[in-house]
Amino acid sequence: MRKVVFTFLVISLFASAHLLIGQSHQTTKEEQAVLVADQQWEKASEAKDVDKAVSFYADDGVMLEPGTPIVKGKDAIRQAWQRFFADPAFALTWRADAVQVAQSGDLAYTRGTFDLRYSGPDGKPASMHGKYMTVWKKIGGKWKAIADMNNDDGQPGKPAEGK
Amino acid sequence: MRKVVFTFLVISLFASAHLLIGQSHQTTKEEQAVLVADQQWEKASEAKDVDKAVSFYADDGVMLEPGTPIVKGKDAIRQAWQRFFADPAFALTWRADAVQVAQSGDLAYTRGTFDLRYSGPDGKPASMHGKYMTVWKKIGGKWKAIADMNNDDGQPGKPAEGK
Fold it and tell me: Of A119, A131, A140, B11, which has the maximum CB count within 10 A?
């Protein structure tokens, strides 16, 4: 039964991955595999499943979060996700808008947008809408995030700064 | 003479690219080519050369800047860089810490850190230290940025938020 549910989930994710991306070309099988990984990761975030969320990173993966220096390696990444999930107000969802895979099928990237709710510095509910990008590497036949970054879209009319 | 200077510059960039990256493996020729592109782009930023800075993006490239929604395509990207350079306090430098290239040599990524000085919202000089990542695609034999993102490291002790 579990296998049936999982198979259905994967098929659903493939189907929705296909529909989600507004790219001009038909997504390839490998692009769909990366999108499925991206979506399964998102489901792990929705479920606040630390083990699952962390499993999508490569062992030497990095998180590039706003407001903090680079987070390197799975132990540090696990601690970061544990902190996220420890906040009762935390809710993070995202959706890929684009995917690219190298012809050799060993490197890929996704980007998209996210919505985050969390407890602000004053303890009050806060929210953030922004964008992310993830670089993926195929390791042992599975797509793993080697670098994952995001930033906020800010308030309309506010000038942007940064690289 | 110009060609000599250019050749020297390229050799210097190759040499420094080689030294800059603290990766455990010897950088490959293609990794060096991506690092050279990253560094030439940085020089264009230092020189406040809009045409040159924009030339490193693919035609359908995107900028993912903090505080503003996604910036898509060269016209919008040019306007963003023009705004950056129009600020007399603007000074942006960066340096790659890591590079990965697909085996097929058509997709790559760099990441590193940047330092930015600019006029803050109150007009006073402001600064930001942060990190960036860029996804590169080889187009017509040249490495072009298809997506470029950054965020700030924040203040020590301040909790991070984001995807």
Answer: A131
Q: What is the ipTM of this complex?
A: 0.85
pLDDT in tens, A68-94: 999 999 999 999 999 999 999 999 999
Pairwise CA distance, residues A26 & B130, whole Å: 36
Q: Establish if B85 touches chain A: CB-CB under 8 angstroms.
A: no
Residue in A67, A100, A158 closest to B154 by CB: A67
Q: What is the C-alpha to C-alpha distance for residues A52 and A45, in angstroms, rounded to an integer?
A: 8
pLDDT lower than 70: segments of chain B: 1-25, 156-163
Contact A162 B153 (CB under 8 A): no
Q: What is the pLDDT of residues A126-162, one digit of tens each?
A: 999 999 999 999 999 999 999 999 999 997 555 555 5
C-alpha distance from B157 to closest chain A C-alpha (Å): 8
